[in-house]
Amino acid sequence: MPRNPSTGVYSKPAGTTPSVGQVIDPAPWNALTTDLGNEITNSLPRDGSAPMAAPLKAASGTVSAPGLGFASNPLTGIYLKGGGQLGFTQNGVDVVFDKASVYAAKSGDYIALASDDNAVHRFTAVATLTLTAAATLGANWHYCVIADGGDVTIDPSGSETIDGAATLVLKNGYSVEIICSGAAFFTNKLFARIQSKADSSAVGDFVVGLILSNNSSSPNTHVDFSPGSARSGASFVASAASFTKRVTGTFAAGTGAGGLDAGAVAANATYFAYALRKDTDLSFDVVLSTSATIAGVTTTLLTGYTIVKCIGVVLTDASSLIRQFVMYPRDEYTFVTPVKDAVGAAISTTSALLALTVPNGARVKAKLRFEFTSSAATNAALLSDPAHGTLTAGVGSDGANVGAIQVANGFAVGSQDIWTNTSKQIRQVTGGSTGNLWLWTDGFYFPCGRYA
What we know:
- With 452 residues, this protein is mostly beta strands.
- The chain has helices at residues 26-42, 134-137, 190-201; strands at 77-80, 86-90, 93-95, 102-106, 110-112, 119-123, 127-131, 142-147, 152-155, 168-170, 175-180, 185-187, 205-209, 212-214, 222-225, 228-232, 235-239, 243-250, 258-260, 270-278, 284-289, 305-315, 325-328, 332-347, 352-355, 365-373, 380-384, 402-403, 411-419, 425-430, 435-445.
């Protein structure tokens, strides 16, 4: 009688339990020895000299007493978990293995689920990724996000946070690994590290692109900035698309929104444009201020932003409208309509300051054309940088750049690019007599760090 295949219990044949003096019947005893021989043959040799001929059926076991263990450490081995899943235990502690990674492409908004543990999702368009509650996802849940077609806003459930913030905007072209603690979400900081690397390893102070221009639809109130980037020290920000700000409102985030740091737009004013970087997602924005320095910018409305660098300037006219201009490479501005800053203005041998239509609060190089007349023949005039101090016009002194008059009351013309002081002034003086001056300001150079 062979072993019971269901229970593994062997029952010997009847008639094989002898008593003293009993005559042995060879038939059952022969069956018994045959069974014993078969069972010895079917046994697994301890020395490993023969393999199994059929599947090995181990006990289900538990995490503390595995069905298949080791003589030297019976608490380490394999056991059967609930649901028919295979479990591994080490020193009586369950060993957890990561789920297989699963890739999927997403073209719109999505809600991350518990089943997305260890998933890799590539977003091909601007989208919002909503995270299911951390308690539902559980500790150790993790998930990879790739932004490959637009920014992805990662939004935890309710008041839960990711890296301590309400949301995280993953910029197009970047990826991030999200980890759940069971109560909140964290990232591997790859996105932040890449941005930090760009900040810390690059050097210099420059502006690339970000060319200013009057907006084509609202040229009197809106100013456009072309795509580009700006750096100052360790701070860097970039804009991949054209950006617009208006002078008819105080600062609000985003293109087309108000740009002033404070107050209302004024007449004949100077507004310096500063590139901003949003601290949470490193996005680009612009604030407009009458201050020529970052320290003077009113920051009440700029919480959460870093002022990176001054990238340009716009001027308003007597009607508080933006003067029409064209900006060229290397920070050169040209007014669409030249401004007459002197019309028959009296000029004498006494050096005097003359105000121009250029930015106030910073030294710029004004692009000037002028005409000069005098009743005295051979008279000439000198227009100069106030940094030279008080000069004297004339061939025997500091020279001239308009004149000399050849005929009494005749005209002489000239042109020159001249640096101003911070009060938008240059100096003027004649050589030998009084005269009158006409002056046109064609534009100016306002250095911000553009080298092309």
